[in-house]
Amino acid sequence: MTTVLLVDDQSLLRVGFRMVIESAPDLEVVGEAADGRVALDQVAALAPDVVLMDIRMPGMDGIEATRHIVADHPASRVLVLTTFDVDDLAFAALRAGASGFLLKSARPDELVDAIRTVAAGTSVVAPRVLRRMLDLFAGHLPLTVDVTDADGPHPRLRILTPRELDVLRLVAGGASNSEIAGELFVSETTVKTHVGNVFAKLGARDRVQAVIIAYECGVAGRTGAGSSSRGASGPETA
């Protein structure tokens, strides 16, 4: 059974989300919170598998609450609720450690599927949407040293092997595991191993965090808001 904590300052929305979630036989709502600070107390007490987190709330907002949850309770994964598919606050929540975001207008089956996906350890952000967010909000990223500089890779990336760095570049470009396998002429199983090693070495919880780290370290080029991206339109496991 996957346990869920609902965090939203609108009680009517919490009621609606609870009805949808509890209609699924494998999901259970174990608590609710109307602001980020109460959410932290509830996470500490209930240890939910997934926290369904609103961003805009009075007091402690969803971004700050997400940052604390990721740092203090890494077993609880955060799925952010947002109104717009490209939202600077949703992007900030991803940088804070959220495993994905979902529109509040999503269909009930999309909500249930997203919770299951996040609980399984996979991110819920289509690569094309993440690329759009990175292009639009690139100015918020503390870009430092490009990996092509004479001094070599960014210090955070020097722990990676050359092949792992290649994999990270491709992940940052939105490539799926099968596309990476084709690009590097290796099996998809080998790619999964490399991706898992990259996550472990960089401390990335999932693909979303790996892509953001890649951008922050200068691995991925910034192509502008109007660019197209490669890759699948939905979440993918490591």
From TrEMBL:
- The answer to whether UniProt assigns keyword Acetylation to this entry is no
- Using the record's annotation, list all stretches that form the Response regulatory domain: 3-119
- Looking at the record, the residues that make up the HTH luxR-type domain are 153-218
Instruction: Cite a single Pfam family from the UniProt record.
Output: GerE
Q: Could you tell me the keywords of this UniProt record?
A: DNA-binding, Phosphoprotein, Transcription, Transcription regulation
| Modified residue annotations for 4-aspartylphosphate | D54
From the Swiss-Prot or TrEMBL record, give the protein name. Answer: Response regulator transcription factor
**Matches recorded under CDD domains:** LuxR_C_like (cd06170), REC_NarL-like (cd17535)
**Source taxonomy lineage?**
Bacteria, Bacillati, Actinomycetota, Actinomycetes, Micrococcales
Name the source's superkingdom.
Bacteria
